[in-house]
């Protein structure tokens, strides 16, 4: 079947203090400028929570990391799903907005597949934002975009910084979204068979396939099964921990299934390492796969409210033969 979701448009991060977080993104990481809005009953019509008419308030700021919009959201009441997420999980990635053939076709798909509304609003009388209950299937919340033909970004409440950006962006683009799951095979098949996302290539990472494994800078072997496929220009990774050692297992225990990390592009792996050392961004988890690919998670949660993975493929890196492919056809990787 044809893929329902065509590309990644936005990553939405719920935060406690938008102004402080936005300034850290801009001043420390060179990400910006940011445009700031308040969404409330005066700026957004027909607000709903779980299909019921309900006003709520939040402050948000958006900027671009490469070709993907980054959204910071501070709930201003206890009503919205953002507030619920913050209470249950703390700061972190709340949703991804995924591109579809059209908003109307996406609505039809949701209705046919019982993907009920989670939260909705009609901003500026020409933009629908529509979160769906995709957590059971996709292990994350998906937002549907519904801009009308005449949509233009309105004048923001504020811009940060007010002048030109003084620092070059450390992170250049979104490479990967990593989702921790309980049952990789079942989740992968749902992505492929129900949503048309795939094919998936499957690998097991363990002490025999990955060398120099580390947890928080200490040498430690761990095991996980992973599968990767593409949604547009972004790699989607499903990860099932196979022990209680890895940070994936810790995340699953503390938060349940969900988005664990994002991999962001940098000028080079070496320049990213230098930045991390200069800014006390300590290692969270590391491995050296196939003797030519470094994957390196850093403790960016305090600054960016999410875990960032650094990619370190060497010049001779090629994807090895997978343990399995689903469906059984030639992979795109």
UniProtKB/TrEMBL annotation:
Q: Which InterPro entries match?
A: Glyas_Bleomycin-R_OHBP_Dase, MMCE/EMCE_epimerase, VOC_core
Q: Which BP terms in the Gene Ontology apply to this protein?
A: L-methylmalonyl-CoA metabolic process
Specify whether Metal-binding is a keyword of the entry.
yes
The record ties this protein, via PROSITE patterns, to:
VOC
Q: Where is the VOC domain?
A: 173-310
Q: Does the keyword Protein transport apply?
A: no
- Where on the tree of life does the source sit, at the highest rank? Bacteria
Q: Name one GO molecular function term.
A: metal ion binding
Which segments of the protein form a coiled coil according to its record? none
UniProt keywords (A-Z) are: Metal-binding
Q: Name the SUPFAM superfamilies on file.
A: Glyoxalase/Bleomycin resistance protein/Dihydroxybiphenyl dioxygenase
Protein name as catalogued: VOC domain-containing protein
What is the scientific name of the source organism? Halanaerobium hydrogeniformans
């Amino acid at each position: 079947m044809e893929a329902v979701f065509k590309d990644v448009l936005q990553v939405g991060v719920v935060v406690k203090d938008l102004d402080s977080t936005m300034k850290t993104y801009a001043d420390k990481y060179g990400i910006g400028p940011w445009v700031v809005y308040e969404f409330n009953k005066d700026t957004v019509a027909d607000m709903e929570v779980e299909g019921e008419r309900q006003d709520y308030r939040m402050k948000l700021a958006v900027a671009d990391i490469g070709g993907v919009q980054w959204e910071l959201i501070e709930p201003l009441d206890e009503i919205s799903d953002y507030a619920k997420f913050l209470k249950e999980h703390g700061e972190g990635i709340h949703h991804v907005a995924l591109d579809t053939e059209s908003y109307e076709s996406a609505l039809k798909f949701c209705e046919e597949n019982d993907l009920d509304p989670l939260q909705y609003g009609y901003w500026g009388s020409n933009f629908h934002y529509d979160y769906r209950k995709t957590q059971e299937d996709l292990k994350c919340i998906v937002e549907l975009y519904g801009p009308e033909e005449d949509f233009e970004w309105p004048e923001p409440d504020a811009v940060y910084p007010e002048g030109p950006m003084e620092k070059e962006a450390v992170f250049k683009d979104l490479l990967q979204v990593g989702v921790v799951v309980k049952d990789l095979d079942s989740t992968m098949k749902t992505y492929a068979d129900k949503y048309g996302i795939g094919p998936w290539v499957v690998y097991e990472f363990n002490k025999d396939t990955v060398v120099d494994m580390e947890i928080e800078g200490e040498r430690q072997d761990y095991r996980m099964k992973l599968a990767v496929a593409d949604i547009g220009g972004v790699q989607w990774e499903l990860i099932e921990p196979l022990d209680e050692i890895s940070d994936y297992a810790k995340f699953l225990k503390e938060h349940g299934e969900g988005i664990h990390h994002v991999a962001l592009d940098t000028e080079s792996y070496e320049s990213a390492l230098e930045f991390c050392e200069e800014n006390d961004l300590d290692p969270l988890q590391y491995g050296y796969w196939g003797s030519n690919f470094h994957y390196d998670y850093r403790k960016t949660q305090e600054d960016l409210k999410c875990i960032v993975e650094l990619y370190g493929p060497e010049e001779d890196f090629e994807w090895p033969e997978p343990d399995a492919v689903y469906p059984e056809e030639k992979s795109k990787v």
